[in-house]
Amino acid sequence: MNRKIIKSTPFGSVGVIWTEVNDNPKIIRILLSKPGLSSEDQMSELYPNSEASSCAEIDDVATAMKGLLEGEAIAFSLDVADLSLCTGFQQLVLRAEHRIPRGSVSTYRRVGEYLGKRNGARAVGNALANNPFPLIVPCHRAIRSDLHFGGYQGGL
């Protein structure tokens, strides 16, 4: 059974879809509000049968997300995310991206090279474009090699 929690932030609501995996709460998706499309509307469309529910661990993560969006220096553990729903390559990309320190920037090409994919910039960009865990895995820390931003789920 999928569960959901919504947190209001300075940038609109953030929706967290989670479930229990081996009696541990795991986030399966984080939805950011976009211009003209709230996280609540996205949750209703993508997870119509999810029920409103939370637990201490998920509450802590949701509160930390709000803090991050209010400017606090928050580092999330990947342990709360259910990476098993991602492809093997996407898992590698998300782990590599998660390792980029706060305040640092890399490129899709560098991440690809780090993963042994010399010409993997586009694949890295696609994996990050479909990042189900924005805020936990801050995909804005990698940009295009021409130093311009790529696209982001919540907009630029």
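(ticket continues) Second input and output from the same batch:
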Amino acid sequence: MGELGRRAVHASGALAPLSHVAGILTWPQVRYAWTAIAVLTLVMEALRLYGGLELALYDRLTREYEQESVAGYALYMISGTPVLWLTSPTVGVPAILMLALGDPVSGLLSSDELRSVKRPRVLVGMFAVCFALAIPFVPPLAAVAGALGATVADGIKPIVRGYVVDDNLTIPPLAAAGLALALAA
């Protein structure tokens, strides 16, 4: 499963906003469903880290550096929750899609290199994918601003107190901020 499985799980997060776009769920239903899954995720992550919960799935889907720390999938859910609650679908849908679909594409382009700033081709690829994900929902200037926020979050790895801030935590809020600011202008 490995890397392909991780990317598939990442992309599965697109189902929540796309279910709204398809008219399957209302925006409040998306919010509640995401929040319920986020709570379940946090409970499972706490059990994994502190309660001895061992599932083969964790071995396949977590990276080595996540074995003793909060895994990316939990950060993904943590960052998406306030974005969904604090934004309208116009902002929330593309912000979550940028994480769910843009980030895995960026990972494929970067070959999982650990760099503080990603290579220019990766940044351009991430920006292009995120712009394409946003443009069906917002005007071009807002799509640029949202894609720029997501690209900065994905492409620059800040270090806080010796810890690299995972882009699963930063892509949705920075993308949403870019989208919202541009729409408000």
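Agent notes: Strands lie at 159-160, 163-164. The chain has one domain: 2-184. Closing as not reproducible unless the customer responds.
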